[in-house]
Structures are given as C-alpha cells and as structure tokens.
Specification:
alpha/beta; about 35% helix; 4-stranded mixed β-sheet; 8 helices; 6-stranded parallel β-sheet; about 220 residues
Length: about 220
C-alpha cells in the first residue's frame, strides 16, 4: 500500500502533538511536514510533496490551510471547532476540487452517539433534552462544536450548559427527562489520542475518495 505523505497543521498544539506522535508510529504514514504559526510560509512548498493535511488550528487558519490545500489538489482533514457558517460554506465550496473531511469531534465513540441521536430523533421528541459539556479552561468556543452538532441532530428545543474547568479533555452528557424516567448518555475522552486516532483514520480513508465534502457519517457507512 502506498504510504500517505502527511502534513500536520497546528503541530505544537494539544491535538497536533498527539497526531504527530501517533503518525510517527503508524506504518501507513510518512510525516512530510509539521506546520505551526511560526513556519506557515512553508506550507505551499510542503504541499507539493504531500497527499493529505490534518488541521487542528484556529477557524481562520483552518480556512487558509484548506484554500492552500485546494490549490495544490491535496486532501484535508479538519478538526478545528468554532468555524462560522460562512467559513463552513467556504469549506464546502472546495468539494469540487479536493476531498475535504470535517468533524467537530474526531473520536469514534462520540460519532456513534451522533449517529444514535440522528437515527432516534423522532423517538426522543417526547423527552426534555439537555446537553452538558465540560472542557479545560483553555478551550475558547462555548458551547463546543460537538454540543452544537448533537443539538442539531436531536432537533427541537435543546438546552446546552457549558463548563470550563481544570484540565478536562472533553465530556459531553446528553440528558433526557421524561414523565416517568431519566436517561443519561455520557461520552468522556480519557486521552486526546481518541481524537488523534480518529483524525488519522479519517485521513487514511479520505485519500481514497473523490473530491467532495465528507464527515464521520460517510466514514462509518
């Protein structure tokens, strides 16, 4: 199997460091480039020798990196949260040029919860729905992109409570209150490797796809 020549954007961030570490140990990948805010000017040149980008940066930087990847016809996986509707529209517009994979949460388990929420949306309509999401103090966007996506999949009125405390990697709790019962589904990330592994799986899958706009629902099929 041909090795995937990978660029990691945001290589010095919490997520980027784990993607780099796991990619080094994964025989499917060759780490072609590591990009951060100090060497962004190297990205266009590095793209010439690459087959996929994984991006965990900021909303503004992710869009710039996606446009650069499209210019070089290189696939890109984006796990950055906090993208505006206009940024999402711009990303989706690149589907004619390159394969783009976007997910606000790259963990396999959380995406299974997304699938369940979408599949049983009608059945959950009888419950009062609440999402409680908790992350470390350094996370800037609130509510999290994961909580917002889960709320959209659930449909109807959904209340969201956000907490920023300590060093919590990520916890999302879906609470369903009914007349005679109370249901809680919780996803707790124990390590950032859960997200890094998901991003690498997405990259390995994406390089085999035609240009388009993809997400975990496509990968899980």
């Amino acid at each position: 199997m041909k090795k995937i020549r990978l660029i990691v954007c945001g290589c010095r961030g919490r997520m980027g460091k784990r993607v780099v570490a796991l990619a080094r140990r994964d025989p499917r990948f060759i780490l072609e480039g590591q990009i951060d805010r100090h060497n962004q000017t190297r990205l266009p040149e590095t793209l010439l020798h690459s087959s996929c980008v994984i991006d965990f940066t900021t909303p503004e930087a992710s869009l710039r990196h996606a446009l650069a990847a499209a210019g070089s016809r290189v696939a890109i996986v984006i796990g950055t949260t906090g993208l505006t509707p206009s940024s999402m529209k711009a990303l989706a517009g690149l589907r004619r040029k390159i394969p783009v994979f976007y997910s606000p949460n790259m963990s396999w388990g959380m995406n299974l919860l997304f699938e369940a929420a979408g599949r049983f949306q009608a059945q959950m309509a009888v419950y009062q729905k609440k999402i409680v999401e908790t992350h470390h103090r350094g996370k800037k966007d609130a509510p999290s992109g994961t909580a917002l996506r889960l709320a959209r999949l659930l449909g109807g009125p959904v209340s969201i409570a956000s907490r920023r405390v300590g060093r919590v990697i990520g916890e999302h709790k879906l609470i369903l209150n009914g007349r005679d019962e109370h249901i809680e589904w919780t996803h707790k990330a124990l390590s950032r490797d859960a997200f890094a592994r998901g991003a690498l799986e997405a990259a390995a899958w994406l390089v085999q796809r035609k240009p388009g706009f993809y997400g975990f629902p496509d990968l899980l099929k």
